[in-house]
Amino acid sequence: MSGGNEATLAGTDLSIPYLKELHKVFSAAFLLSLSECYNARMHLVALQASGFRSLTGIDFQPTPGLNVIRGHNAQGKTSLLEALLFLATSKSHRTNIEAELVRDSDVGFQLRCRVQRCDREVVTEANWFKGVKRFRVNGVSQPRTSDILGKVNVVFFSPEDAALVRGSASNRRRFLDMELSQLSPGYLFALQQYRQVLKQRNELLRAFKPDPALVDVWDDQLASHGEVLIHERMAFVRELSAFAAKAYRRIAETEDLEVRYQPDIPLDSPIIEVLNEARESDLRNRVTTRGPHRDEIVLLAGGRAARQFASQGQQRTAALALKLAELELVKDRVGEYPVLMLDDVLSELDLKRCKRLVEAIPREAQCLLTTTDLERLDSMFGVPCANFFIQGGRLEKK
Ligand SMILES: Nc1ncnc2c1ncn2[C@@H]1O[C@H](COP(=O)(O)OP(=O)(O)OP(=O)(O)O)[C@@H](O)[C@H]1O
Ligand SMILES: [Mg+2]
């Protein structure tokens, strides 16, 4: 063993220059793996479905970029995307009655997807049999269906999302709640507690002679959970608004979109005081009239309230901008773009908006886009794409 600052261990050179070199190599490898991670896209590698809606023997293997699924009406385009949504969220966007998802009221369905994430592969399987649903992730069964949330991230746009713009405030609150619940466990907890307390307070208000001391107890709890909801919604909408405005401008070019959070209880008013002031009218109306369950999210397209004044195309553009904003927000929090699913998105948009939409999809995001436009193309408005064709629930690569 030589003296000074040099040392060997079991024949390994541990001199300072060697260690420096080693450090350089490791740093470079670390940076390389980081950049690989950054460039890698979360993407669906394969999706298999059988017995789900009209789908038969589906083996869908999309590319990591833009995938266009073409087909006439009623051939299974939406069902294919719905299958991936179910694997990612354990829910369908079209129904809460899961038996409706089973092909021709048979006994069950099986779904399986393989998703490549930046640092790992995730295989999710869903098995629905006679009313019992089971999920497995990488072979391990998931006792609660909520355990599968976040294993595969997706953002789904469906034509029904126009309700986000023209529907009642409850549609927009549901959107906020769904997004925030996936991104913030603290929010999910506060939301569950708030809903529970609200239900109990309303039940109490409907009682013959509500006990004021008990109403006080519920008010304290509503105030503390409500405060979390208001502050998280405020921060989320601020972030969402910036991304949505950018996305809207990219698609609509000359118009702007503004998303404003309008809490029922103003930010500078203590919730408990507002609840106290509203107590008398709550007792009269037998319902809780104030609180975050009455919040509104206002959308202004081209300076006008989108709910009342937006045209069909503007409504669709605004709903799309919200979804593209969601894509960026998930990327910010999770580090990778989620899989973007755009169902029948091009109808109702003029050619210019269609083109700008396709250009606005981030290149690093995988996108599955369905359309009834049957023309096979090598590129969609200059963006390279892979083509699939679906007919009678069977899919083929074109
Ligand atoms: N549980 C089920 N079993 C069998 N078929 C079903 C079931 N649920 C829906 N279908 C049928 O599956 C077919 C495909 O529906 P889907 O909504 O996927 O079509 P689509 O290609 O998206 O059509 P469109 O272009 O009109 O939106 C429809 O004919 C529908 O009636
Ligand atoms: Mg459809």
Which structural class matches the secondary elements?
alpha+beta
Bound molecules: adenosine-5'-triphosphate, magnesium ion
Main sheet attributes: strand count, strand direction, barrel closure: 7 strands, mixed
Residue ranges: pLDDT <50 for 5 or more in a row?
1-38
Give the terminus-to-terminus CA distance. 67 Å
Global Rg: 26 Å
CATH architectural arrangement of the domain at 161-335: Up-down Bundle
Question: Would you give an account of this structure?
Answer:
By secondary structure, the protein is α+β, with helices and mostly antiparallel strands. Among the domains are: 8-37; 161-335, Glutathione S-transferase Yfyf (Class Pi), Chain A, domain 2 (Up-down Bundle). It is 43% helix and 22% strand. It has helices at 16-39, 77-89, 163-166, 169-183, 185-205, 212-252, 271-285, 306-309, 312-334, 351-360, and strands at residues 8-9, 12-13, 43-50, 58-60, 66-70, 108-116, 121-129, 132-137, 140-142, 154-157, 257-262, 296-301, 304-305, 339-342, 367-371, 379-380, 383-391, 394-397. The strands form four sheets. Strands 5, 10, 14, 15, 16, 17 and 18 form a seven-stranded mixed beta sheet that branches. The protein has a six-stranded antiparallel beta sheet with strand order 4-3-6-7-8-9, covered by helices on one side. A three-stranded antiparallel beta sheet has the order 11-12-13. Strand 1 and strand 2 (12-13) form a beta hairpin. The structure holds adenosine-5'-triphosphate and magnesium ion.
